[in-house]
Amino acid sequence: MNVLERLAIWQHPDLKDRLQWYRQVADNRRPAKFRIARAIPVDCSPAEASEEELWAELEAKTPVFLDLWGHIRQGTCDLPNRPDPRPNLLDLCRELTQRMLRHCTFCRWHCGVDRSRGTKFGTCKLATESRVASYFHHQGEELIYRGRFGSGTIFFTSCNMRCCFCQNGDISTDKDNGEVVSARALATMAWLLRTEGCHNINWVGGEVTIHLHTIVEAISLLAELEPTIEDLRAALLVKSDFFFHIPQRSEHAVYHGMFNAPMLWNSNFFMSEASLKILRLLMDVWLPDLKFGPGRCAITLSRTPWYWETVTQNIKTIYEWGEDFTIRHLVMPNHVECCTRPVLEWIAEHTPDVPVNVMDQFHPDNFCDPHSPRFDPKYRELARRPTRAEILQAFRYAKELGLRFEALSYEKNTTGLHL
Question: How many Å apart are CA 325 and CA 76, to the nearest integer?
Fold first, then answer.
């Protein structure tokens, strides 16, 4: 169908040669990574092997995955013409996340609590349950993600950071917001969005890393899901957009007769190295935030230590892996010099050809809104929108550094400002 590929924005110099894998999977010209992982057999029983053995097998099979993925990207081969083996690399990823849940190391906090018991909680305050606040055809993402029919966005509750200005504060700070969903219900939501025409499945929150176990299990189910009427009824209770009654059309979501959809990891990127290794085999495109500079702003505004070294290392890692991704940076009032400038300088030095959205959409929210009963006076410096001068200075820094920022930043800006 090539619906996404036909967007004129791909002709912009910032994007013309970028995100080729994502574009091909979105238009069903290539199989999503999870389908490739499912085609690779593993040499152990995931349910019976120790966690150490599971990690060793993941390390052994990742090069096999990368080799097959590389050939598929180049068009020199396709998925093997045989039934998917069992157990396979996707099964292995699923089992590993279930084991990690017992001493949770999904994110950089490394809380180590046994979330499967739910008797002690870490930073995210979650046990095994995952809650979804809403899911819909998101028309507010960058054009390369929302396309014509929207980004298939699934919003999870709770977070592992404490940003005082969070514009999804209702779901990030309230762990009981939304509806509890099973992995099968989650898979049904993704199936609905894709068959209704969404260009991707956009896993977002809150924060998604803390729900890794449910998401990976849902992806494993998607590989062979045939939703029942009961599945659809349960999933539709949480759906919240005007595409509610759009009919499902299989051609939106099929590669060689199999369900297909690019997976988008929309995250604060404050995740562990272990989580990143699993997601490498499942995510087709990534959307990391790079919020704060290397000073104390992450601690002051988000109560998050180790922020700069963690997030920059994770972004650098996926860049070195050759993954498809774009970066978001939100310009905050009074933080252009301490956050925006060093963030953009780091991008220019370490990931210079990656498209960047320098966002002018900040508005006082959560604990920064002076009109809210939640307002905390210690965050008064953020109780306003950025000024025209601050936005233009951010754009000027990006321009001087030679970043690919215009296509995404100017298309999405809310002030109408550009250089």
Answer: 24
**Phi/psi-derived region of residue 251, left when phi > 0, alpha when psi is between -120 and 50, beta in every other case:** alpha
Cis preceding-peptide flag for 87 (omega within 30 of 0): yes
DSSP 34-54: HHHHHTSB-SS-TTTS-HHHH
Give the number of other Cβ atoms within 10 Å of residue 53's Cβ. Answer: 14
Contacts of 36 (CB under 8 A, 6+ apart): 65, 68, 69, 72, 79, 281
pLDDT-above-70 percentage for the chain: 97
- The closest alpha carbon to 317, from 373, 279, 291, belongs to 279
Q: Which residue type does 354 have?
A: V
Who's near 142: CB < 8 A, 6+ residues apart? 326, 357, 408, 411, 412
Structure tokens given for 189: 């939501």
How do residues 298-332 score in pLDDT, each as one tens digit?
Answer: 999 999 999 999 999 999 999 999 999 999 999 99
Give the CA-trace dihedral at 286, 289, 294, 297, to 10 degrees.
-160
Please enumerate in sequence order all residues whose Cβ is within 8 A of that of 291, keeping only pairs 6 or more positions apart, or say none: 163, 268, 298, 302, 307, 311, 329, 330, 339, 343
- Which residue has tokens 């988008």? 264
- Residue written as token pair 């252009």: 336
Residue 64 CB neighbour total at 10 angstroms: 13
SS (H, E, C) 81-96: CCCCCCCEHHHHHHHH
Write down the pTM of the prediction.
Answer: 0.96
How confident is the model over 179-214, as pLDDT tens digits?
999 999 999 999 999 999 999 999 999 999 999 999
- Give the mean pLDDT of the chain: 95
Mean pLDDT of 160-175: 92
- What tokens were used for 7? 């967007």
**If you ran DSSP here, which 8-state letter would residue 139 be given?**
S
Residues 279, 33: Cα–Cα separation, whole Å:
10
User: Which segments of 227-282 are extended strands (E)?
Assistant: 254-255, 258-259, 263-267
| DSSP label at residue 176 | T
Rg of the chain in Å (alpha carbons): 21
CA separation for the pair 100, 274 (Å, rounded): 9
